[in-house]
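Protein record

Derive C-alpha cells from sequence
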Amino acid sequence: MKKRQIALKAYSHPLGVCTLTVENARCRSAYPERIERVLRAFLDGRELFFGFYRTDGMHLSPQRQRELETEIPAFFRKSGEMRKISEYLSVARSELNDRVYARIPEIFDYYLETTLFVPRMNWETFQQFHVDYQGHRLEDMILKHFADLLFCYADSGDFSVCFDPQAHDCEKVRFVLQKVFLGEGFCVGNARGR
C-alpha cells in the first residue's frame, strides 16, 4: 500500500487572501497534538465559531461515531451553543479553552468538513452566512471581514489556514505549519500578528 504524502501547498486569492493547506495532515503521527499546536499558535480571543458540513466519521469506528453523535452537541451545549441549520449544516460557538482544544481533533474526524475561527461578526450573521455554505468559499469570510484567519479541515485529511496577509505574516504562518507538520519537532511560541 502506498504511503500518503504530506505536503504544504500555498494558494493566493487575487484580492489578497492567502491559504496554506497541509495535504494529508491526518496521516501524520501525533495528529491531535499537532492540530492543537497550530491552533494555539494562532487563535486569540475568548470565543470560537464553528461551521459544519455533513457528518462523516471516516476516521472513526462505527461505535465512536455513534457516541460522538450525542457527545458533540452536549459538549457545545455545555461550553456554548449549537444549532442545526439543515440536514447537512450545523453551526456552533464555544468559549476558547483547553477542553475545546482537546475536543477539536474528534470534531474534525466526525464531520465531512469543519471550519473554525475567532469571529469578527455576530452569531446571527454567521448563521445566516452558513445557510448558503456551498455558495461561499473560505476566502469570502476573510474578504467580508468576518475573521482575519480561519481553519478548515476536510475528511480527506487536509488542514487549511486561510488568512488576511495584512493581519498575519504569510512566512510566519508557513513556518508554523512546516515546523509542526513537516518537521520532526513542534513549533514553540506564538505566531499571531505581523
Strands lie at 7-12, 18-23, 47-55, 80-84, 89-95, 111-117, 149-154, 159-163. The two ends are 42 Å apart (CA to CA).
